[in-house]
Amino acid sequence: MSTTQSSIAGQLPASVGEGDVYARKAVLASTVGYALDGFDLLILGFILSAISGELGLTSSQGGALVTWTLIGAVVGGILFGWLSDLYGRVRVLNWTILLFAIFTGLCAVAQGYWDLLAYRTIAGLGLGGEFGIGMALAAEACRPEQRARMSSYVGLGWQAGVLAAALVTPVLLPVIGWRGMFAVGVLPAVVAFIIRHFIGEPKIFVENARKPRTENSFKLLVADGRTARTSLGVVILTSVQNFGYYGVMIWMPSYLSSQFGYSLTKSALWTAVTIVGMAFGIWLFGQLADRIGRRPIFLFYQLGAVITVLGYSQLSSQYALLIGGAVMGMFVNGMIGGYGALISELYPTAARATAQNVLFNIGRAVGGFGPLAVGAVAAKYSFSYAIALLASIYVLDILATLFLIPERKGAALE
User: Fold this and answer.
1) Contacts from 191-197 at CB under 8 Å and sequence distance 24+?
2) Where is the Major facilitator superfamily (MFS) profile domain (predicted)?
3) Which CATH class is domain 17-208+217-404?
4) Which of 126, 138, 168 minimizes the C-alpha distance to 37?
5) Rg, C-alpha atoms of the chain
6) How far from 301 is each of 47, 296, 336, CA to CA, in Å?
7) For position 262, what pLDDT does the model report?
8) CA distance 410 to 148
9) Is there a contact between 46 and 253 (Cβ–Cβ < 8 Å)?
10) 109, 215 in Cβ contact below 8 A?
11) Does position 2 have pLDDT exceeding 70, yes or no?
C-alpha cells in the first residue's frame, strides 16, 4: 500500500458505511458545497450591472466575467475530480473550498476588469470540483435503493444557494455594495469547510484505494466502444441542461426589467418562484428515478422541457411569467437531480469522481456559451425568439437518452 493509500485508510472511522448516519453527513457536506456554487453564480448575475457601473465595463466584459468563471469551473472540475479519485473525496473537496474562499475574497478588492477577471477565473477552479466530487461522495455513502434520492438532495443544494442569493441580494446590495456581496459569498465556504471536517472517506473508496491502480481514470471514461458511447450520451445530456439553464437564468432578470419594467425586487421574486419550481423538479426526479428508473424519468423531463420552454416564450403577462417560470424551471433544471446517480452507476470507483466532473463540466463549458448565444439572438431578433429556440435543443437530449444511455437503476457500484 502506498503512503497516500495508507493515509486515506487511516482517515476511515470504524462506523463509516455501516448506517445512514454517515450517509446523512456525506449528503449534507455535499449539499452545502453545491449550495455555495449556486449562491456565488447567481450573486454575480445580480451584481453585474453594479460592477460594470463602478469599473466601467462594457456589456461583453460583464458577460465575460460569467463565462470565465464557468471556464475556470470546467478546468477545476476536471483537475479536482481526477485528484479526488487519487487522494479522497473529502480531502479534495476541502482543497476546492479553500481555493474558492481565498479568490472570492480577493474579488471584493478588485481594482479593474483584468484583476477581477483573474480572481473570478481562479475562484471558478474551486467551484468546479463541488458538483462531481459531492455527487460521488453521496452516491458512495448511501444504499442503492436510495441513490437517486440522495443525489437529488445534493442537486437541491444549488437551488438553496441560488434562492438564498435571490433573497439576500436585493436587501444587502444597496447597503454593502458589490464588494460586500463578494465578501458575503465567502461565508458559505467557511460553513462547508467546517462540516467536512467531521466526516471521513466512503468505505467503497477506501477499499478501492488499497488496490493497485492499473489504469488512468480518464482512460476509463472511454475504456471501450460501449463506455465511449455512454460518455458521449452523458455529455450531450449535461450540455443541453447547462446551456438551457444558464441561457435562461443569467439573462432573465435583465429581460424582465427591460421588457416589463420589473424592479430588482420583482426580478428577484420571479427568480425565487422559478427556483422553487426547479427545486420541486429535482426532488421529484430523485423520488421517481428510484422507483421507476433513470431513463424513463429523463425522457419525461426532456419532453416536458420542450413543451414548457416553447410555451414560456409566448407569455407576456407578468403573472403568467411568474407561474410559467416555476413550471418551466421544474423541467429545465429538474434533470440535475438524476446525474449523480446515473453517472455513479455507469463508472467504477477508480474513475467515479473523474467521470462526474469531466462529463458534467464539459456540459458546463458548453452551457457557458448559453448566455452569449441567448444575448446575441435576443439582440438581433427578440428575447422571446431566443427562448423559443432553446426548446429545440432538448430534442437532442431525448435522442441521446434513447440511443446512448443504459439503465442501471439500483446497480451495485463497481
Assistant:
1) 191/32, 192/29, 192/32, 192/33, 192/36, 192/93, 192/97, 193/94, 193/97, 193/98, 193/101, 195/25, 195/28, 195/29, 195/32, 196/29, 196/33, 196/90, 196/93, 196/94, 196/97, 197/94
2) 26-409
3) mainly alpha
4) 126
5) 20
6) 32, 9, 10
7) 65
8) 9
9) yes
10) no
11) no
Domain ranges, ordered by start, for the chain: 17-208+217-404
In whole angstroms, give the CA distance from residue 118 to residue 298: 37
pLDDT digits (tens, 9 = 90+) for 215-272: 789 999 999 999 999 999 999 999 999 888 877 777 776 667 666 666 656 666 777 7
Cα angle 148, 151, 153 (rounded to 5 degrees) comes to 110
Average pLDDT over residues 361-377: 82
Which set of grid coordinates corresponds to residue 241?
A: 441542461
CB 230: neighbour CB atoms within 10 A? 23
The residues, any chain, with a CB within 8 Å of residue 68's CB and separated by 6 or more, are 117, 120, 121, 124
Extract the C-alpha cell encoding 94: 476541502
Beta-strand runs (E) in 29-180? none
Long-range CB pairs of 228-234 (<8 Å, 24+ gap) are 229/404, 230/346, 230/404, 230/405, 230/406, 231/355, 231/359, 232/400, 232/404, 233/400, 233/401, 233/403, 233/404, 233/405, 234/339, 234/342, 234/343, 234/346, 234/355, 234/359, 234/405
- What distance in Å separates the CA atoms of residue 55 and residue 70, rounded to the nearest whole number? 21
Residues 6+ apart with CB under 8 A from 47: 169, 173, 178, 181
Question: Tell me, what DSSP letter sits at residue 159?
Answer: H
Residue with cell 430523485: 286
Residue bearing cell 466530487: 133
- The pLDDT tens digits of the residues spanning 48-90 come to 888 888 998 887 888 888 888 878 888 998 999 999 999 998 8
Instruction: Please state the separation of Cα 67 from the chain's center in Å.
Output: 15
